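Input sequence (143 aa), recorded before submission:
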Amino acid sequence: MCATAFCEPMDDFILSPKPWWLKMVTKDWQWVTIEPRIYYPTGIEPLNYPAIIEHEKVHLSQQKKTGKYYWIFKYIISRNFRLEQEIEPIIIELSNTPLDARKNLAARYARSLSGSAYYRAAKSYDLALESILTKAREMGVEY
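Predicted structure, token format:
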């Protein structure tokens, strides 16, 4: 599983605007990955967001290794699984973000992970931020 061995981002994917049914259950700004598609928010040019695409490619790899439907099911029902599955892609996104913007991005993700955007995957902001920074150190990503 990706939790113990780092997931390799996948390159065989399809970029698609978020369809109506995903818009109904996600925030406007959220990207969603359902293998083999990466759905992006409408009204943006997705290729202007290479760091986010790298984040989503890790989700593709996670889904492929775990099984797409099982992964989606666990992601929806398990707060711990959702947190675990977000940390590594966040670090990949950080590594593809300019160094001077990484701390701010890590803090934004910690707020999101502990808030409604990720259905309180982390119990607190501090726990989310510590999880992000610990994984960054593990993966050798400077912040």
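Checked by second reader. The mean pLDDT is 93.
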